[in-house]
Amino acid sequence: MKNFPFLSSSQSLLLFRITLPLFFVAHAVTRIANGTIDRFAGFLSTKGFFATTVMVWGITAYEIIGGIALAFGYYTKYLSLGFILMLIMGNIIIHYENGWWVGEHGEGGMEYSCALILGLIVIAATKNHKETLEN
Known about the structure:
Elements: H1 9-33, H2 37-46, H3 52-71, H4 76-95, H5 111-125, H6 129-134
Helix pairs in contact: 1-3, 1-5, 2-3, 3-4, 4-5
């Protein structure tokens, strides 16, 4: 176990900083591929929001463009803050009523979003990719 995980802490952090944003990209691409934009927009309409199709496309675009930019290390503090605010709103609007647990112990809770928020805080608090590799 001495050599596990075979990466230095700076390399591990870089891997984390690249892959976590790609979860957002995958989430958005799946929403498009599965054709669930209208379903999500309809759900938001039931919560009292208006122009929900535009809103969902905006969220989806932010997840794709912002996720790619964040994975490449651009505007990490600002993009992380945007994702954190989006996740907090998602927790309030969608997940809170489903409780804490996402999977096995529940359905659609806040657990995963909170883990992503913590990861985004780590990304926002670290240096850019180049500086991470140099240290």
